[in-house]
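Let us practice reading a record.
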Amino acid sequence: MNSLAAIDINHRSASPVDWASVACDLDANGFAIMPKLLSRAECRSVSDTYSEDTHFRSRIVMARHGFGRGEYKYFAYPLPDRIAKLRAELIVNPVFFAFAKKV
C-alpha cells in the first residue's frame, strides 16, 4: 500500500486557511506558509516516502545549479491520490489563480 494513501485532507475544515495572509505572503515573498494544511501524521506520511525513489520522477541537487545546498524531488505521475486531491483543491483557489496570472 502506498504510504501516502493515509493522508486525509478533509480535516482542514477545523483549521481554515487564512487566505488574506496567504495572498499577502505570495505577493511579498512569492511563497506562503500554510500552517496545519496537513496534520503531523500526514506530513510524516509524505516525508517517509522521500527515500523511496519510485514515488519521484526527478531529483534536483541545488548546488549543481548554483542555488546553495540541499535537494528536492518532483513526484512522479500519476500523482499519489491524496497529493493530487490537495493540488486540485489549491490550484482552483482564487488566491492562487490571481498569483499565477501575475508570474
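A brief commentary: The first strand starts at residue 56 and ends at 61.
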